[in-house]
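Figure 6 in text form: structure in, sequence out.
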């Protein structure tokens, strides 16, 4: 799956979620939602690595939480890029892959 396909698949899911809770997905929402997800990823990482309370979660649950939050962050980066017409694949090629030897 490429990132454009991913964006097309997750866009209606995000729109449906926002609609169900009565939130307008404006430019600020896309960035703030990403920030929220990065915070949740940070919390999951801290719990997984023993740097925060585990809240009674097993190691397997903490690992699953970490993985899920990584997916959330990726999806919200993709949604933010889609919102602003950014071709992430082209930008990754330009910024990162230019350095592959």
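Output sequence:
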């Amino acid at each position: 799956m490429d990132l454009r396909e991913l964006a097309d698949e997750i866009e209606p899911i995000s729109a449906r979620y926002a609609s169900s809770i009565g939130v307008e997905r404006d430019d600020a929402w896309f960035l703030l939602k990403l920030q929220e997800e990065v915070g949740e990823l940070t919390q999951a990482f801290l719990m997984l690595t023993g740097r925060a309370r585990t809240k009674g979660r097993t190691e397997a649950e903490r690992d699953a939480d970490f993985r899920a939050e990584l997916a959330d962050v990726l999806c919200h980066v993709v949604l933010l890029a889609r919102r602003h017409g950014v071709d992430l694949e082209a930008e990754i090629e330009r910024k990162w892959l230019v350095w592959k030897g």
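Caption detail: DSSP finds four helices and no strands in the chain.
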